[in-house]
Amino acid sequence: MSSTARRPGRRLAAVLVLALGATGLLTAPTAQPAHAAPSGPQPALAQWIDRDTVVWKGAEPSAAQLEFDTGRAGAAGRRLRLTPGRLTPAERAAFPHLTGYPAFTVDPRDRGLARTALRGRLVAAQRTADGRRTTTGVQIPGVLDDLYGARARHAALGPVFHHGRPTLSVWAPTARTVALELDGRTVPMRRDDRSGVWRVQGTRDWAGKPYRYLVTVWAPTVGRTVTNKVTDPYSTALTADSARSLVVDLDDPRLAPTGWAGLHKPAAVPLRRARIQELHIRDFSVEDRTSRHPGQYLAFTDRGSDGMRHLKSLAAAGTSYVHLLPAFDGATVPEKRADQDRPRCDLASYAPDSESQQECVTRAAARDAYNWGYDPLHYTVPEGSYASDPRGAARTVEFRRMVQGLNGIGLRTVMDVVYNHTAASGQDPHSVLDRIVPGYYQRLLDDGTVATSTCCSGTAPEHTMMGKLVVDSVVTWAKEYKVDGFRFDLMGHHPKANILAVRKALDALTPARDGVDGKKIILYGEGWNFGEAANDARFVQATQRNMAGTGIATFDDRARDAVRGGGPFDADPRVQGFGSGLFTAPNTSPANGDPAAQRARLRHYQDLLKVGLTGNLADYTFTDTAGRRVKGSQVDYNGAPAGYAAAPGDALAYADAHDNETLYDALAYKLPQGTRPTDRARLQVLALATAALSQGPALSQAGSDLLRSKSLDRNSFDSGDWFNALHWDCADGNGFGRGLPPAADNKDKWPYAKPLLADPALRPDCATIRGASAAYRDLLRIHATEPAFGLRTAAAVQSQLSFPLSGKDETPGVLTMRLADLAIVFNATPHPQHQTVAALAGHPYALHPVQAHGADRTTATASYDETTGTFTVPPYTVAVFHRR
């Protein structure tokens, strides 16, 4: 996942929805005949950006007009006259991507027609110089924000209860009518013309009843007026398979588990010190024989299960947060267990390198119980497939019990949120937002088509009401579900201002008024810079560089690539890195180059890792492996600055996550095949250490300490339990050798994968798995007990952290770091290494007590010679020394 315009190699979960078409989970829209409407959509090259101005790509600088109909049979069409004009400085700043296109001014005499024009078919028309009439569709988000945004942004939407009586509100400014379908009957709603919000107040007996909105609106994607039966974007509860919203008050005491009001949380850990486990809810327990609720929220209440006992041990060692992959309502998984398909094969009977497992899993994938969850349907309701019963509000209660369960073993909860795209758009049955206000919530390209650079139908948080939805949804999860942090998927597709608005809204939450301390909630996300928003083309993005100094972290791909080697999109997966044998234990891949090229690349990787260990600070100054004095920002990463952070906490370190191969699988590809299992495990721990012992927050994928494998699957979003499930009992293996990974994303790698999967030496035994996990926990204990790993400022890092042996003579494959009273040696080579720091001669150091008395007896042999200042470290070892 590079910052250089390459997109993440991710699951593409919602693409599955589009590929499958309608599944019947939602009632399809019914259509009314349109008046003088074309039979289908047309390009929308004109953009009505505010009440005064229209921009029209490709138009001539001459008079034009906006034509609209009223929707009344027999009524004549009407128009708003346009004259050539120019964008104001404020308009250019708000719409930088439109500055080169012809602009038109709406005739002041016609501006009063704007609200009416927006509620019907709308086209821009112009008579060209040669007499031809040209027309195009009109994009309307800008003018909707101008006319309605100021009032609508303060509206309370969805079901809101006052003294037991609900009011239901939905923003639909372009709708001709909106009605409420409540429990099988139709109730009219009233429109507020100033905000575009439709409301209806109900009675107490509405509580718990199913409802939808009946929205009659012009739908440009089908070129006609339709009446859409659609659920509430601000739903607080749903029926099974998201067929209806439910009138539910999240403050209803019946939805609060015992002890919820007085929930005692573990002490908040500041983001710069956070150590995070990334975890998928179903993966966690679906194959845990000791869990009473496999695959469910309630598995986190089974305190005696193997999974919970392992999480508790990580918490005791220093893990502070569990990051849950998306747990909001998704479009892909059938929520009723009776409707869920499963592989109909004896998967365990096939050979470890067979194609049969993936064939069988793939046949069931479209209707099985598995998906990562990056396919948003309703942003603020828990996913029903993880509940014991997807009908009604059980999912609310059980999500809360999950949070309680994690808090009870010392872990705070982070939620992965995906506001950058929807599962579908237009009139697709899985489209919610776009069937209520067509053409508003999705980000549109210059021709009016929906942007899909995110993999799916992109949203537009730069628009007032989409930005509001993001803020309102996050605040609801924080207040009503007591979530302790949020990880934003593809955060670079959000405006920086939107993410800062989230931060501001959370900071306003107080324990006395809201039951939570919002200032202690952590935020981080993927700050990748790509797609139609890249390089701040439409707004200042929430990218790595732009978020520096905000206290909101972004994932650091620089150190990740350096320790693993290569990048996520290499055609040959055997490209090696610092932690996978580059130069020091070369494999046979020609992609690594000759020894001289390997040595040069390894030295550069070591510089990238140094920057990463500082917290990826832009202004941190050190001597690089060429002997030059450089700043972190002057170290190259694929043409971009390696260092971008302003302070510890701006960059989040990691060696693996759910995207791309697990760390074990990456090392399986990259290390020479004959590498011993114990050495593979040691290098796994060393790679994890480059994140765990860095300044700033660090994340690891759940199970990485247990050498977790997905049988070399690089994109397991839809690969089912067989490839994804965590194995807490080492007797069940680590997941390696469960067959060739699914062909859709891995077939080009099968020639590399097949001999590895067939090799029994790559399937670690219990002693190796347990040893790696124990060694990783020792690193967590060191981090948790040493204040120097939590430096607050860049200046403190500069003064207390150094790389004394960095320079032209630095040992390839070895990093030596001083940090206050600590000295840390990362030896990624197959040989013992002697690192002499002359300045430390005469100073008393010893191996850190945690490692000296820890689980890894090889690391315990690391030593220090006080007379010469020499640290001796075994092969494939990270050793931490403490000044006595």
TrEMBL record:
It comes from Streptomyces endophytica. It comes from the Bacteria. Residues 44-146 form the Pullulanase N2 domain. CDD domains: AmyAc_Pullulanase_LD-like (cd11341), E_set_Pullulanase (cd02860). This is Pullulanase-type alpha-1,6-glucosidase. Keywords: Signal. Belongs to the glycosyl hydrolase 13 family. InterPro entries: GH, Glyco_hydro_13_N, Glyco_hydro_b, Ig-like_fold, Ig_E-set, Pullul_strch, Pullul_strch_C, Pullulanase_N2. The keyword Signal applies. The lineage of its organism: Bacteria, Bacillati, Actinomycetota, Actinomycetes, Kitasatosporales. Residues 158-235 form the Glycoside hydrolase family 13 N-terminal domain. Residues 1-36 form the signal peptide. Residues 733-882 form the Alpha-1,6-glucosidases pullulanase-type C-terminal domain.
